[in-house]
Write the structure tokens for this entry.
Amino acid sequence: MAGAALAASATLLFAVTRGPDPRILWWEGRAIQWDGLGTGIVWSPEGELLRFRPGLHVSRLPVALAGRSIVGASPDGLGNVLMVDGSGMVVRRRDAGDVVEVGRTPFDIPTLATSGRTLWAARSAVQFTFKPESAGAPLLARLDSTLAPDQAADSALIPSNPFFAQLVNAGHLAALPDGGVVFAPFVRDEVVRYDRHGRVRWRTRRSLAHATPDPRMFVDSGRVVIDYAPVNLGIGLGPDGRIYVLSTPTATTAASRLDALDPSTGRVLATTRYGTALPTIAVDARGHITNPVPDSLLPPAGERAREAFPSFDLPDLAGHRLRLADLAGKVVLVNVWASWCAPCREEMPALDSLRRASDSARVAFVALSDDVIESSARRFIAEHPVGLKVGLGGGSLKPRLHYVGLPYTALLDAEGRVIRRWSGYTGADQIAAERAAIRDELAHTAMEGMHHH
């Protein structure tokens, strides 16, 4: 009965896709932005631009970034792709793969969502600044073709610590075919649907106790800690007309829950739980949920598509030099961290355990600190002694390595090219993925050596 009622309401509100073809809504934890033309776009955790079609069709799109770091991508409703780089600049990918700058939105670093030619923007939950907001600043904005706002939705919240305004107001968007938009804040327990004029249609809360609508900062054992927890990890519109929201069920990102919401009322119709925060999720027109394996859907990348990792030459803890060039011929796992990064403290022992289980003659593990103050990095390693090679970046690594946030991990082949990247740390699942990627690369290299011989 609930399914029949949902189908009736969805038919009135949306042009529901007919047929069983599933649509991928999440790819390794990243929400895919779909337009009204049957095209989905995502910037993958591995740093690839992927295009999706209904029916689990996935392809890679070549893109020449010229050193830009990308925090998000979306179709533009015209058959092209809009991307946001780490500085907040919106760029458009052209057919040849090169990018041209489009401009900036009202937000420092935006996230974008398109339906047809309607473009909505919010503050990015992937990367944000610590700039205060003025009273009355919009929470969301509908943009015209020049990225200027032509409609606002709601007002930004002003937290007790004004430097957390971008964090408090960041979130995820799903643009709707009727011109409206659904917003899922990053650290608040709510999902809000707005019509095309920015008026609230409904607001749903799910009693998630770990929400932190007013983050605070404190010092613990000499460390500066920002007290907040992710709540909403992404949002998407299924081909069945329902709104899907991926969230964390607790204060950690060790698991996730997928809620299916009635588009007319916001009522939670069904919940699916996952033992990872990085699921791949597909939904068909009947609301049937599956979890395809990403590697089985992607066409082979080919080694020529691998991008060279920026070379580094840094001092290590003993006063010697740690150079990428000296590790040539080995598979190299590079981890970038900082003493103030809470997930880094959990990740470092796990990486060291992975190192001990690896063949040191063929695999090297490198931990690069991006602490500005060297003594902070040294104190961290003293508290977390590891056998990884430690380099001291002195706060210079982000513009050189183009990472989005910490921790950041890249696996390199024997020629220093990127096999795969990970932003953040999601626990045992990520370590398992890193172990599998190392194993696969070593096996591939051994096979190539046999053919060459």
Remarks:
- The two ends are 66 Å apart (CA to CA).
- The CA atoms of residues 82 and 92 lie 5 Å apart.
- The helical segments are 2-13, 165-169, 294-297, 342-356, 374-383, 398-401, 428-452.
